[in-house]
Amino acid sequence: MSCGCEEKPWRNYYRYYDTPDGCDVGKKILVTSRYGTIAGMIFATYDVLMFSHAVGLVPVLKRYATHVVPLALMGATFTVVSNAALQARERDDSYNYFLGTSRSYGERLHYILRIVRSENF
């Protein structure tokens, strides 16, 4: 399957749709993980300051990891599954995104249940 990665726009950063699906998967994983990391940092800061009131370095880092790691992995999982489906099926259609999104929802559900069940929330 040809990627068509030869022509790239000139920018200092990479966006998800700069290249077709199945091409530059590593860069696409970094892009989607970056958005999850930013959202996780925002949620974790809000959690530490407003809800858990964690004191000390280790409890604060634990609260940050509780939010940042699952949200970053959601984006990475979506990218890996949708690109793997493209490679396996050899068709570029919306079903690949459906597979990536449905696998990502499993992690999202685990994240939500973990937050609800935590004793500090």
From TrEMBL:
GO terms for cellular component: mitochondrial inner membrane; respiratory chain complex I. InterPro entries: NDUFA11. The chain crosses the membrane at residues 35-58, 64-86. The keyword Mitochondrion applies. It is a multi-pass membrane protein. It comes from the Eukaryota. It is found in: Mitochondrion inner membrane. One of its GO terms (biological process) is mitochondrial electron transport, NADH to ubiquinone. Keywords: Membrane, Mitochondrion, Mitochondrion inner membrane, Transmembrane, Transmembrane helix. Belongs to the complex I NDUFA11 subunit family. This is NADH dehydrogenase [ubiquinone] 1 alpha subcomplex subunit 11. It comes from Papilio machaon. The lineage of its organism: Eukaryota, Metazoa, Ecdysozoa, Arthropoda, Hexapoda.
